[in-house]
Write a structure and sequence with these properties.
- The chain is an all-alpha fold.
- The chain is elongated and about 50 Å long.
Length: about 120
């Protein structure tokens, strides 16, 4: 029984690390597409698609945190971090749609930094 709990915790932790890495990668790719947004005709399309993918990665992070916590028996703290990150992602998407670059851009930088920090802690 204890071996199964340990195996579940390891799997949950691995899934959580993968989810955070995916989120970090999608945010980084959003910076690239933001540059393309300023310099090419297809940049807006790439940035829009990337926003959806980044938001999905943030939702996956929440799911991975819940799965690592409940069945795996780890701390609930990553669930709070993931939920907070999803709230930031929601604000980021809303600010992007509303075309508020003075807040949208710094929030994106903050999100990338927080995501790298979360990844380094796992």
């Amino acid at each position: 029984m204890a071996d199964q709990v340990t195996a579940n915790a390891r799997r949950g932790s691995s899934f959580l690390r993968i989810a955070i890495a995916l989120q970090t990668l999608t945010i980084f790719l959003q910076t690239v597409s933001a540059g393309l947004l300023l310099t090419s005709s297809y940049g807006e399309t790439l940035h829009s698609i990337g926003a959806r993918v980044m938001y999905g990665a943030s939702m996956l992070y929440v799911l991975a945190a819940v799965l690592a916590w409940k069945p795996g028996g780890s701390s609930p703290r990553p669930v709070l971090h993931a939920s907070g990150f999803l709230a930031l992602a929601s604000a980021q998407v809303a600010l992007g749609i509303a075309h508020v670059p003075p807040v949208h851009l710094p929030l994106g930088v903050l999100m990338f930094g927080l995501s790298v920090l979360a990844l380094s802690r796992r």
